[in-house]
Amino acid sequence: MALSEKDLENMGEMMVQKFKTIYDPEIPVDIYELGLIYDAFVNAEGQAKVLMTLTSPNCPVAESLPNEVRTKVEEIEGITEAEVEITFDPPWDRDMMSEEAKFELGML
User: Fold this and answer.
1) Residue ranges of the MIP18 family-like domain (predicted)?
2) Is residue 54 domain-resident?
3) What's the Cα-to-Cα distance from 6 to each of 3, 9, 12, 13, rounded to whole Å?
4) What is the pLDDT of residues 2-33, one digit of tens each?
5) 50-103 residue pLDDT tens
6) pTM (whole model) above 0.85
7) Structural domain count of the chain
């Protein structure tokens, strides 16, 4: 069964809520506010794709963090599968963090 436009809009909001429950273990801020999520979408068949980055190519959670993102996204009702792609283009930097994250880390 294909998802409606309304369902797809809700999926985006639900994905953001899931991203906000995932933390980089070295930084006490969630991956969404850190700016690690570059793009996320769901098609009408419920297949999700997340394009994200890591704080550095040598990030100690390079293996586990994408798997955690995939698992959390697949928990959303209506999503049949999720793919997580890691990119370093553009490379992450502190300017990608939200104001909330910068405040949390004492950078404002």
Assistant:
1) 20-85
2) yes
3) 8, 5, 10, 11
4) 777 777 778 889 999 999 999 988 788 999 99
5) 999 998 888 888 889 999 999 999 999 999 999 999 999 999 999 999 999 999
6) yes
7) 1
The answer to whether the bond into 28 is cis (omega within 30° of 0) is no
Query: pLDDT per residue over 26-51, tens digit each?
Result: 788 999 999 999 999 999 899 999 99
Block residue for tokens 């100690």: 60
The CATH number that applies at residue 10 is 3.30.300.130
Contact call for residues 92 and 54 (beta carbons, < 8 A): yes
